[in-house]
UniProtKB/TrEMBL annotation:
Keywords: Membrane, Transmembrane, Transmembrane helix
Primary localization: membrane
InterPro entries hit by this protein: Band-7_stomatin-like, Band_7, Band_7/SPFH_dom_sf, Band_7/stomatin-like_CS, Stomatin_HflK_fam
Top-level taxonomy: Eukaryota, Metazoa, Ecdysozoa, Arthropoda, Hexapoda
UniProt name for this protein: SPFH domain / Band 7 family
């Protein structure tokens, strides 16, 4: 039987008043009448828009559910009430040290946002709903971390937050508490593991840099080969390349330049090994 059904049965039970309860209620009413109008200051109570009041009469929950917002009436000496704040409350989960699925020790802290959904259950079903929710959040966080690998904890915090919220919401529902949001704040790793991961990342970056450099050299070699093929097809293009290189060098540095002259340029001036003038 669920908590909602149990409370439905309690509300539907006839309110049988015993002799002692009847006498105490009657005495309270007589006292209220005798002390008018001063007793009105203690009989009328006010709760804010974001509050609800759960009233007990001689230890028994009064019918009608939680009162508020606004003014409600209590009898002196026989009625007591408890205010419940319905606004969203947040608290920090202390850093929890847990062993992950791949046997790595991590320290994780989180923040939880919750609110009171059912004031009656929050007062009747649990002694201190705030402290109970905090303790449950700590144990739930450790349990969830134990089912995840280190890579999942570092890369998929949203999934961990959602799993923790779902688990907390189911566990705190009988208490009238609604867990609205859970956020993972920080994941701390041991110093030795941090150095190992940094070394691994550095080695991976160096390997990628070498691969990129090798690919660049390969592409440059292919381009040079294609250029040499084009120049080889046209000897005049080779001569123009020589002249262009000479022009660039002379423009940058004014110094003596030894420039090799291709033998193809001197071929017309030689015939059978004899210089032709």
């Amino acid at each position: 039987m669920s908590a909602t059904e149990e409370y439905t049965l309690v509300k539907e039970e006839p309110s049988t008043m015993g002799c002692v309860e009847f006498a105490a209620t009657a005495g309270s009413i007589i006292l209220l009448i005798l002390t008018l109008p001063f007793s009105l200051f203690w009989c009328f109570k006010v709760v804010q828009e974001y509050e609800r009041a759960v009233i007990f009469r001689l230890g028994r929950l009064r019918t009608g559910g939680a009162r508020g917002p606004g003014i409600f009436f209590v009898l002196p000496c026989v009625d007591s009430y408890c205010k419940v704040d319905l606004r969203t409350v947040s608290f920090d989960v202390p850093p929890q040290e847990a062993l992950t699925k791949d046997s790595v020790t991590v320290t994780v802290d989180a923040v939880v946002y919750y609110r009171i959904q059912d004031p009656l259950n929050a007062v009747v079903k649990v002694t201190n709903y705030s402290n109970s929710t905090r303790l449950l959040a700590m144990t739930t966080l450790r349990n969830i971390l134990g089912t995840r690998n280190l890579a999942e904890i570092l890369s998929d915090r949203e999934a961990i937050s959602h799993a923790m919220q779902t688990s907390l919401d189911v566990a705190t529902d009988p208490w009238g508490v609604k867990v609205e949001r859970v956020e993972i704040k920080d994941v701390s790793l041991p110093q030795q593991l941090q150095r190992a991961m940094a070394a691994e990342a550095e080695a991976s970056r160096e390997a990628r840099a070498k691969v990129i450099a090798a690919e660049g050299e390969m592409k440059a070699s292919r381009a040079l080969k294609e250029a040499s093929d084009v120049i080889n097809e046209s000897p005049a293009a080779l001569q123009l390349r020589y002249l262009q290189t000479l022009n660039n060098i002379s423009a940058e540095k004014n110094s003596t330049i030894i420039f090799p002259v291709p033998l193809d340029l001197l071929t017309p001036f030689f015939k059978n090994g004899t210089q032709v003038i």
